[in-house]
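On clarity, I found the account of how folds are encoded harder to follow than it need be. For illustration, here is how one protein appears when written out as sequence plus structure tokens:

:::
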Amino acid sequence: MATATLGLHSVTLVVREAAPTLALMAQLGWRKVAQEGNRMRTVIGHGGPGRTIDIVADAGRPEAVNGVGTVHHVAMSIGSIEGQRALRETLLAQGYRVTEIRDRTYFTSIYFREPGGVLFEVATLGPGFTVDEPLPALGTELKLPPWKEPHRADLIRALPAIRAGG
């Protein structure tokens, strides 16, 4: 029997002070639904897998450093590019340093650090992965965004071999 990761239930942000992070999360549509000690659970919509973020307050925690085996950023979705533009303008007006809207071929993204220092990405859901191949063919070929095409050969060499059929 083959096993595979099908998704993530949630992520945990460890920050020195929870209040500023919770305030931003509320602005983004997340709501605090539980607390146990210094761990707070926030959800969006009805919560559940992919819609839950825990925040742990640890005033003595040393500042995190990216490296091998660490998570680079936490991604969230937004319904439209218009909503993304409006959110970007709101965040800029509040003093956040927000990237320009980045076209990732399959979606657009903005990035900014929340008050505790965690890098957030807010990405649109579209146009989606069928923009350059039909749904029945998804995953059968290596598709790359235009800026990665010059590195295709190197990327292919670095990929592990895959055996179909389990």
About this structure: The CA atoms of residues 78 and 96 lie 18 Å apart. The first strand starts at residue 10 and ends at 15. The chain has two domains: 10-62+71-133, 134-160. Residues 10-62+71-133 form a domain with the 2,3-Dihydroxybiphenyl 1,2-Dioxygenase; domain 1 fold (CATH 3.10.180.10).
